[in-house]
Amino acid sequence: MIADFHIHTRFSGDSEADVDKVIQSAITKGMKYMAITDHNDFEYENGMFELDTEKYFEYMTKKKNEYKNDIELSIGIECGLEPTFYDRINKLISSYDFDFVIGSSHVINGMDPYYKEYFENRSVHDAMVEYLKSILENIDMFDNFDVYGHLDYMMRYAPITAEEKRYDYAEYGQLFDEILTKLINKGKGIEINTSPLKSGLYDTNPNLQVVKRYAKLGGKIITVGSDAHSPEYVGHSFQIAENMLRDAGFTHFNVFRNRNFINIPL
Ligand SMILES: [Zn+2]
Ligand SMILES: [Zn+2]
């Protein structure tokens, strides 16, 4: 795999990663393309996830140029999608010439599944249903993103064993079918996010069954991202992602430049 399209640096509220080290790690691992996709989530706690976009853009443009002979750096953003902030999110994304925009669900009805309160007084099934419904709502509402990030992200934090997190597609099949179909009809993609594999979980976000179903429904746009928050995790478990893509029948995956997707053969 020669492209990691989901990476964080010190411009994200939850990362201290040095930008040069992140880029050099990607180059060392043989990557030809990468996207730095730092977080923006409006009004999260003390504003810890509000991206200093002006500075970010200026800095990344410099780095893009500096490393252009070794790797193509796409300037991306991972934008938390929340209906409450619809106007601000659109304004932010359209004010800069991003190469790539991941739309993600981090906060659902005011709560982040990262915190255990999200799961209090209800089953994991019900929590997942709420999560997926909020994704549907976001897809209906938002247009200004390229791929939907880590579709079943909340499962990372569900208070159950790694084994129990391996849900069957059929359990949420109707909702997933609706999500995937809407994304395909809107010309949006999904990603395979390998981050859970570094913490001992068995499945990527989303899992192989979802990726297979996406392909079956006609989905073509798919990126692969480590969601690394430090340099060593760039490209983590990408062999598994590649196997998943092949298994689902893909012969390519995607990178983005100027918000347009490019097919990279597997
Ligand atoms: Zn995320
Ligand atoms: Zn991320």
Task: Describe the protein in words.
The chain is α/β, with parallel strands linked by helices and 266 residues long. The protein has one domain: Alpha-Beta Barrel (TIM Barrel). It has 7 helices and 9 strands. The strands form 2 sheets. Strands 1-2-3-4-5-6-7 form a 7-stranded parallel β-sheet. Strands 8-9 form a two-stranded antiparallel sheet. Strand 5 (147-148), helix 5 and strand 6 (189-193) form a beta-alpha-beta unit. Helix 4 (124-141) runs parallel beside helix 5 (173-186). The radius of gyration is 17 Å and the shape is globular. The chain binds zinc ion (2 copies). One zinc ion binds next to loops.
Give the structure's gist in a few sentences.
The chain has 266 residues and is α/β, with parallel strands linked by helices.
Number of strands: 9
CATH H-level superfamily: Metal-dependent hydrolases
Overall mean pLDDT score?
97
- Low-pLDDT runs: none
Pairing-aware structural class of the strands and helices?
alpha/beta
Per CATH, the class reads Alpha Beta
Number of helices: 7
What are the key terms here?
7-stranded parallel sheet, 32% helix, alpha/beta, TIM Barrel, 19% strand, 266 residues, binds zinc ion
What's the arrangement of secondary structure elements?
Elements: E1 3-7, H1 19-28, E2 33-40, H2 53-66, E3 72-80, H3 86-94, E4 100-104, H4 124-141, E5 147-148, H5 173-186, E6 189-193, H6 208-216, E7 222-225, H7 238-247, E8 252-257, E9 260-265
Parallel strand pairs: 1-2, 2-3, 3-4, 4-5, 5-6, 6-7
Antiparallel strand pairs: 8-9
Helix pairs in contact: 4-5
Bound molecules: zinc ion (2 copies).
